[in-house]
Amino acid sequence: MARLGVNIDHVATVRQARRADEPDPVWAAAEAELGGADCITFHLREDRRHVTDRDARLLKETVACKLNMEMAIASDVVQIALNLKPTQVTLVPEKREELTTEGGLDVVGLKDRVREVVTRLTGEGIIVSAFIEPIRDQIEASAETGFDAIELWTGGYAHANTENELDDELHRLLEGIRAGERMGLEVHGGHGLTYRNVWRVAGLPGFSEFNIGHSIVSRSVFVGMREAVREMTELLWRHGPRESV
Ligand code: PXP
Predict the structure, then answer these.
(1) What phi and psi values does residue 89 have, to the nearest 5 degrees?
(2) pTM for the full predicted model
(3) Distance CA 100, CA 54 (A)
(4) Widest distance between CA atoms in the chain
(5) Which of 58, 126, 199, 219 could form a disulfide with 121 if both were Cys (CB 3.0 to 4.6 A apart)?
(6) Residue tagged active-site, from 10, 43, 50, 188
(7) CATH for 3-239?
(8) Is the CB of 129 under 6 A from ligand 1?
(9) 70 is catalytic
(10) Residue ranges per structural domain of the chain
(11) Is-contact 29 59, C-beta < 8 A?
């Protein structure tokens, strides 16, 4: 079964709405682990609009499972990651005006800068993943620049409006998984996945990790973080590809 990475950014978003000290994303991470999360994911944005340096430090100290830090390729956050040494860094594009990460990183266009960042991070023993769209050139460029993993943007699937669009997007994801595997990359998925739509991507063979944030944090408002995570792990298990015997 694919690992579940729980993105706790939006717990910090609620806290920052009041510039208060609750709810604490570090506490949310502990609750998520108790609910069965395999990985805690956070995005340290350049504008620190939700997760702060204090959160990153405490998450590193307290998270017992895999810790995945999403970040842009900007020098100051790269330096923070090199000092913090999370288990994994996922490189993402970042625009100040966006509500959340939109689309994938352009590894093809930013190849030289990306290669430099990947080399520095892997040199510290950090697993490095590229958040990219399921496009062959981007996958190839990710393999060439030394990434260990790719996280395929599932937003195209999540935003599809018709059955045809859904089928096309699932096909793109499957092709992306196959290309990534052929190039020796671990393949993750994320963005826009919810309790209602996760089942189809969960059923695609080859995804080893999903990173899910907004939907789990939203559900946790009603049932608590432990239960929200437990319900999502159950969906991944129920709809995950069956091993052939
Ligand atoms: N993966 C990456 C790389 C992301 O940037 C995000 C959003 O922060 C997610 C997964 C989670 O997306 P969502 O909140 O839509 O589940």
Answers:
(1) -115, 135
(2) 0.96
(3) 21
(4) 54
(5) 126
(6) 43
(7) 3.20.20.70
(8) no
(9) yes
(10) 3-239
(11) yes
